[in-house]
Amino acid sequence: MSGVFSGFETHEIDLPNARIHLRVGGAGAPLLLLHGFPETHVMWHGIAEQLAARYRVIVPDLRGYGDSVAHDGDFTFRAMAQDQVAVMHALGYERFHVVSHDRGARTAHRMVLDHPEAVRSIALMDILPTLDVWRTMDDWLAKRYYHWTFLAQPGGMPQALIKSDPVLYLHSALVGLSGSLEMFHPAALAAYEAAARKPSVVDAWCGDYAAGASVDLEHDRADEGRQFEMPCLVLWGTKGVIDHHVDPLECWQTWFPNAVGKGVEAGHFLIEEQPEDVLAAVLGHLEGAVR
Predict the structure, then answer these.
(1) Would you call 219 a catalytic residue per the annotation?
(2) Range of the domain at 221
(3) CB of 110 within 8 A of CB of 219?
(4) Position 125 in a domain
(5) Are strands 96-101 and 119-125 parallel, antiparallel or unpaired?
(6) Which among 41, 45, 147, 268 is annotated as catalytic?
(7) Is 121 domain-assigned?
(8) How many domains does the chain have?
(9) Cis peptide before 199 (omega within 30 of 0)
């Protein structure tokens, strides 16, 4: 994207079971930004450079998404979290801050559960804990989160349907979660479209949600009741869906008792819709976490 991620370097890091594409820029304490479905690391374009003015910012594509590749077909959050911890170690960082959205936020949550020593602070955007999503999945939520069950169907059916017109599906998913394509930067939308045209990315989407409906649930149930004292910021879009049934902050305080947060006047893609509000909240959180 021209004029975006200025000063960032592009890297490819080979891991035993994946190759992770990422950008790195800035100087200071290390900060990992994790994107969600159906986007790529480009979703951080509105705030990455501003964060890099104060932090060493690492912006990867999750395994199978964007320009990252999974070699083993494992799209669990456990595998995604392990990837990112390995990436940070490869870059020389043992502990770091994590700011995350959507599937990236679920990866960040699993990272804390599996690698708590690595995470200095965490920010989770526009998600409920996975267990709470399934517990509150009534007819109202199912209509808005239909992709949770559609993408998880076995036998290759969702992959075949999406691959027949991947850009149409991408647009449908973006509009379904945001209300409009107009809020997306044209270059960002083009990056998401380019990724969607890769059959391996469609496979990753489906593998991700299939794991989220099965083994990820088993992992989360096994860890239910654990709590972590690290600084935690919770943000959500007030025009979205996650606060319709429950209070997102109260849900996350069962895992992170010190969590603070608020709703932002936006839909699901709040980072792209209200970048200034999100940036201010994230900077305040990070500054408090380093004191």
Answers:
(1) no
(2) 9-290
(3) yes
(4) yes
(5) parallel
(6) 268
(7) yes
(8) 1
(9) no
For 35-78, write each residue's pLDDT tens digit: 999 999 999 999 999 999 999 999 999 999 999 999 999 999 99
Strands (DSSP E) found in 157-285:
232-237, 260-264
CA 153 to the chain's CA centroid: 22
**CA–CA distance, 128 with 77 (Å, rounded to integer):** 15
Q: Which member of 67, 102, 132, 220 is catalytic?
A: 102
3-class SS of residue 59: strand
Alpha-carbon distance of 145 to 141, in angstroms, equals 6
The answer to whether the CB of 188 falls within 8 A of the CB of 38 is no
CATH number at residue 33: 3.40.50.1820
State CA 124 to chain mean position distance: 8
DSSP letters of 101-115? ETHHHHHHHHHHHH-
C-alpha triplet 35, 173, 250: angle, nearest 5°: 55
Tokens of 83: 């990837």
Q: What is the reported pTM? A: 0.97
d(CA 155, CA 114): 30
What is the distance between the alpha carbons of residues 29 and 269, in angstroms, rounded to a whole number? Answer: 26
What is the DSSP track for 227-267?
---S-EEEEEETTSSTTTTS-HHHHHHTT-TT-EEEEESS-
Q: Report how far apart, in Å, the C-alpha atoms of 157 and of each of 70, 144, 152, 161, 176 are.
A: 20, 20, 10, 6, 21
Identify the pLDDT of residue 289.
80
CA geometry: angle 181, 37, 218, nearest 5 deg:
150
Q: What is the pLDDT of residues 191-206, one digit of tens each?
A: 999 999 999 999 999 9
List the helix and strand counts (H, then E) for the chain.
14, 9
Residue 268 is a catalytic residue: yes
